[in-house]
Amino acid sequence: MRLSIPDMALVVLIGASGSGKSTFARTHFAPTQVLSSDYFRGLVADDESDQSASADAFDALHYVAGKRLAAGRITIIDATNVQRSSRSTLIELARKHHVLPVAIVLDMPESVCLERNSARPDRDFGAPVVRRHRAELRRSLKSLQREGFRRVHVLRSVEEVAAATVEIEPLLNDKRAETGPFDVIGDVHGCRAELEELLESLGYAIERDDEQRAIGAAHPEGRRAVFVGDLVDRGPDTPGVLRLVMGMAEAGTALVVCGNHEQKFVRALRGRNVKIAHGLAESLAQLAAEPAEFRKQAEEFCDGLVAHYVLDGGKLVVAHAGLPEHFHGRASGTVRSFALFGETTGEIDEFGLPVRYPWANDYRGKAMVLYGHTPMPEAEWVNGTMCLDTGCVFGGKLTALRYPEREVVSVRAHRVWYEPKRPLLPPEELPPAADSVSRREPHVLNLDDVAGRRSVETRHHGRIAVQPERAAAALEVMSRFAIDPRWLLYLPPTMAPVATSNRPDVLEHPEEAFAGYRAAGVQDVLCEEKHMGSRAIVLVCRDSSTGATRFGIDGPGAVHTRTGRPFFAPDQTDELLGRVRAAAASAGLWEELSTDWLLLDAELMPWSAKARGLIMDQYAAVGAAASAALPSAVEILAAASQRGVDVAELHAKTVARAANADAYREAYRRYCWPTEGLTGVRLAPFQVLATEGRTYHDREHGWHLSVADRLVGADPELFATTRRLTVDTTDPDSTAAGVAWWEELTGDGGEGMVVKPAANLTRGQRGLVQPGVKVRGREYLRIIYGPDYTEAANLERLRQRSLGRKRGLATREYALGLEGLERVARGEPLWRVHECVFAVLALESEPVDPRL
To answer: Where is the Polynucleotide kinase-phosphatase ligase domain positioned along the sequence (predicted)?
Structure first.
């Protein structure tokens, strides 16, 4: 009997005591592959038969098994495993590491087990134990696959065990022996003519049948095509694409991974209850005209596609939606789901589409990952990954990457075959650079404006350079997650913290802010209450026609984050903007500022409205763990102290940690409150950025806050007041009043304050003065640095934090933001504005401590 076991599997041996599991393991596997419960009992108790040590032994066994599985090594568990509870732990371990669990059952006769046990001095427990093991085993046999074992091999006699052979099979996704060269092709979506054109441009000779239909293609130099999935749906000729690709796959000139559209396509062909949307109706209609035999072949072909391939010794990975490194070469439902669908952030963009999680931004793996799924204007490298879906069916291009040459080859779509929900903006053929400004349409964007090494000339800070890798990161974020670019006029700069304080109990203190501005020649500063929310940019139009006439897009405006993402679904955004528009009208701002649109800098509260996932997964989890563990530890240490054990120092430290944990929970809870729709949402504007024809960084901050107060008066349920205090940095009494005000704010649990030059834009001897510094409270900083950051040793270490890079970043981003606003006010083309917007986002990807 041949027992096939997939590579990297977790193999669970199941059988009564004496059934021969250990002998079987020694016969068929290397000693290092086998983890025996007896051996681990010996490790922890010096006695392999000490059943009282079983719990510790299995803890150690599971830990070692986890390390082996994490490294991708086949692992055999040698224990009785006749109880479902013991098997369920092992199945969960296999799922955690995305490997396949396999069961090998030795269902030996009772007499054989008893005879073998009688010959071993350490097996003196007699026949009842064996009978119980066999009874539990027989009850389990029919349920092993339902429990989660992907393969179950049962051996029922000594002869079957002796005749058994074990064969380790490579996983279906393991194509490491295939070294290429390859031509990896992006999402085709039924665009058969473009596919033929691309294959010919890559040097493939297309084979045709008597009806001149393409039924295969081969390269004279032996190159092979690799398709990233989504061959079907939306386009004009899904059957033609399938006929060509199926022929190539059968001839061995192509490999194909499954896309999410193939999966749904198969389910529809099998009569499953699926929603006929996203182009599936076109495929089904086209396939209905084909013979039944072809439909059956197409169904079987798509159903048999693998979710991802690992190629060229592990140097190349191809998956439809991409794949993080820890999933490469693994096999589980989670891995397949990510490969087919990717992951979403839980947000919905303004087109009603899910916001994709930018896994490529965090990718640091050795393998090149090529994928599709999310249409991009251009194929760009991001951390050794490339998305090859350039939206052919949407009127873009069909793109391939030649591997290992890393050469991108594309052909343009013959037409727009399917209108996308989110506009695809492919690059235009530009005229010479000398007259490009005057000839380009105002709202047309081009990748060349933001890609590669950039240098943006600003009025207030000279020329600011953007490195190509930073530009690529910004493009990745913007193209995947941002609102419609026609609404995106400004991204706010990062804010630098105040200089680190040397006071023994705080890390930040207002006196350093006052001293810093005093040294820069700034006498009057404005201290503004720092709201604990999310930075929000609000662009609101006075009426429905303004968006179309001024920005080239219909709609009331936009509300977006610091990185250009929408805060709310479209209907909630419209509702919020309606209230802002009405408040501006009630406050008389439209007439006073002579404008039909208004761009505001604001804070949107509560923090939990946007950061709920962060709060639940990070802050609340830490707080819950601390509150569960530390009080018990305090009680135990107190009891030990009463018994005379010298734990006074540890007890005091644990009491302090418990108090710190309580303070930590209180710190983040202050900034969370329930919201439903817009109920509970507050908006605290603090600056008017721009209106038609002008900017306002030459107006004092007091004027900006007075405008905000008028909005609060118009709609006090939506708008929140920003409290403030003016301080003379040269007057000790005034600075003392500023310190006292900060202590009052933070003593009540507030985040702290922002200190700004009262005159707003200010220049000093060394150029631009910092537009603002944040002075955060002692308790709020627990959220940033952790519950125990106030301990003396931790504070001393944190005082060494370096602020120079963060301050330089804040100044450069501030200058870029001002430049972009001035270009907006002058009515310059959108691509000129976006040059600044992209540059701000690109600088945000520079390596700076995010806690600063």
So the answer is: 473-847
Beta strands, E only, 88-150: 101-106
Q: How far apart are alpha carbons 211 and 231 in whole angstroms? A: 22
pTM here is 0.51
Per DSSP, the residues of 423-465 read PP-PPP----GGGHHHHS-TT---GGGTSSSEEEEETTTEEEE
Alpha-carbon span 571 to 574, nearest angstrom: 5
Cβ proximity of 306 and 344 under 8 Å: no
User: 65-113: per-residue pLDDT in tens?
Assistant: 999 999 999 999 999 999 998 999 999 999 999 999 999 999 999 899 9
List 724's β-bridge partners, or say none.
528
Q: How far is CA 792 from CA 376, 498, 507, 783, in A?
A: 50, 20, 11, 17
- Distance CA(245)–CA(231), nearest Å, equals 9
> How buried is 155 (Cβ within 10 angstroms: 0-12 exposed, 13-18 middle, 19+ buried)?
buried
The residue with greater pLDDT, 740 or 835, is 740
Count CB-CB contacts under 10 A for residue 291: 8
Tell me the average pLDDT of the chain.
87
Element (H, E) at 763: strand 763-764
Question: Which amino acid is located at 734 in the chain?
Answer: S
What topology is assigned to 2-169 in CATH? Rossmann fold (3.40.50)
Answer yes or no: is pLDDT of 684 > 70.
yes
Classified by CATH at the fold level, domain 501-531+722-800 comes out as Dna Ligase; domain 1 (3.30.1490)
Q: Which CATH architecture has domain 182-412?
A: 4-Layer Sandwich (3.60)
465 or 618, higher pLDDT: 465
| Residue (of 778, 187, 149, 819) closest to 464 by Cα position | 819
CB 77 within 8 A of CB 65: yes
CA–CA distance, 784 with 801 (Å, rounded to integer): 14
In angstroms, what CA-CA distances link 391 with 184, 187, 190, 318? 15, 8, 12, 18
Closest-CA residue to 25 (of 49, 54, 3, 53): 3
Would you say the C-alpha torsion 263, 269, 271, 275 has a positive or negative sign? positive
Distance separating alpha carbons of residues 521 and 762, to the nearest angstrom: 10
Predicted local distance difference test score (pLDDT) of residue 683: 94
Give 81-86 contacts, CB < 8 A, sequence gap 24+.
81/12, 81/13, 81/14, 81/15, 82/14, 82/15, 82/16, 82/133, 82/134, 82/136, 82/137, 82/140, 83/136, 84/140, 84/143, 84/147, 86/58
Q: Find all residues with CB under 8 Å of 119, minimum gap 6, and list them.
A: none
Token pair in block for residue 223: 């190159």
Highest mean pLDDT out of 126-130, 470-474, 735-739, 805-809: 735-739
Query: At 477, which amino acid appears?
Result: V
Contact 321, 339 (CB under 8 A): yes
Q: What are phi and psi of 821, to 5 degrees?
A: -65, -40
The C-alpha atoms of residue 142 and residue 177 are separated, in whole angstroms, by 38
Token output for 149 = 């074992």
For residue 156, the surrounding DSSP H or E stretch is none
Residue 517, exposed/middle/buried by CB under 10 A (0-12, 13-18, 19+)? buried
Distance CA 508, CA 739 (A): 11
600 three-class SS: strand
